[in-house]
């Protein structure tokens, strides 16, 4: 018995267990070797490559794509690549990994100005690369009056301009360049405290009249602000300025505007071609789908104007009322942290 157990033990001792395989590191593969076995992105037609690169942001093209190879660099230098420029400040902040939230301290204020300058420098370069072919520009969380002036001096064929969360762009600067935007068809101004009535800051609406007179081809206008509820006083100045000078509008979004029924009536009379009207969060308008509130618009009007107002509403194919859902509102996608950072950022520069 003991003898058999010893044999078993010896047998177990002689069994060689399989060793763990060592991790093998693959040799580095050069760009040319990788292209042989896979898809050769460099040999794509230039128009296809340009279409792919157009999906990238300005930062990605200037800092990454044009450094991949000579072919991509040549395409990135093509003026047609820069027909549309989308510049954003918060992308640069995240790339630099600035720690902590924004505060009102001098250090963070200087950091913001430093990174803002870097983005402006890049945008100046992108505008120069367009060689006057720029037709679409979006400015978000950055931008200055000087940048607007450089942009309009370089390109007179701009058709779309979007300004969002841009604390350094003023209505004076926008009024100054309005005469250089004769081809403008689409204008969006959202949450820009020195232009629109954002964060409870009141401004003159003269810049809207200047834009309306200088941009006869304007078809779409977005003038959005933070909804102020019933605590903000009624203000129809924006509505009256739009009605007086922007008769060719087809699409109008006035998210969170402070106008009442008088302002809305002026828009309906002054903008006869409206097809889309967004009145969400306009808390001084008492309107709903059942018709409650429409009577207030027509009070004090002659029978001719009452019929005209009714016809104008009937021709609007897309209508959002003040209490309609905001789930598809584009700027709600901004997270709470970024929004809080901007509000503190705005406090610093408004002092």
TrEMBL record:
Residue stretches of biased makeup (Basic residues): 8-23
Q: Where is each F-box domain found? A: 38-85
- Chain spans, region Disordered: 1-31
Check the record and name the InterPro entries matching this protein.
F-box-like_dom_sf, F-box_dom, LRR_dom_sf
Source organism, top-level taxon: Eukaryota
Annotated signal sequence range: none
**Which protein is depicted?**
Putative F-box domain, leucine-rich repeat domain, L domain-containing protein
Q: Which organism is it from?
A: Rosa chinensis
């Amino acid at each position: 018995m003991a003898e058999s157990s010893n044999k078993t033990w010896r047998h177990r001792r002689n069994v060689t267990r399989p060793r763990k395989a060592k991790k093998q590191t693959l040799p580095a593969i050069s760009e040319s070797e990788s292209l042989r076995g896979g898809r050769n992105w460099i040999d794509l037609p230039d128009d296809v490559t340009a279409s792919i690169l157009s999906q990238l942001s300005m930062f990605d093209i200037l800092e990454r794509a044009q450094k991949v190879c000579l072919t991509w660099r040549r395409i990135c230098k093509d003026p047609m690549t820069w027909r549309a420029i989308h510049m954003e400040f918060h992308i640069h902040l995240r790339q630099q990994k600035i720690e902590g939230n924004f505060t009102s301290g001098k250090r963070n204020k200087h950091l913001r100005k430093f990174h803002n300058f870097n983005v402006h420098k890049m945008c100046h370069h992108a505008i120069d690369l367009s060689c006057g072919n720029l037709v679409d520009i979006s400015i978000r969380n950055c931008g200055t009056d000087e940048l607007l002036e450089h942009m309009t001096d370089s390109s007179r064929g701009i058709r779309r301009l979007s300004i969002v969360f841009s604390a350094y762009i003023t209505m004076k600067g926008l009024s100054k360049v309005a005469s250089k935007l004769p081809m403008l068809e689409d204008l969006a101004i959202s949450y820009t405290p020195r232009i629109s009535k954002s964060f409870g800051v009141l401004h003159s609406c003269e810049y809207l009249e200047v834009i309306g007179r200088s941009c006869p081809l304007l078809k779409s206008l977005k003038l959005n602000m933070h909804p102020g509820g019933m605590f903000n006083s009624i203000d129809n100045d924006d509505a009256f300025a739009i009605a007086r000078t922007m008769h060719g509008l087809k699409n109008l979004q006035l998210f969170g505007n402070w106008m009442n029924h008088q302002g809305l009536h002026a828009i309906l009379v002054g903008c006869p071609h409206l097809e889309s009207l967004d009145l969400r969060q306009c808390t001084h308008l008492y309107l709903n789908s059942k018709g409650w509130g429409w009577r207030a618009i027509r009070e004090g009007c002659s029978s001719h104007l009452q019929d005209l107002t009714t016809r104008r509403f009937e021709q609007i194919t897309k209508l959002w009322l003040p209490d309609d859902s905001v789930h598809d509102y584009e700027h709600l996608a901004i997270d709470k942290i970024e929004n809080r950072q901007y509000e503190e950022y705005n406090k610093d520069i408004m002092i």
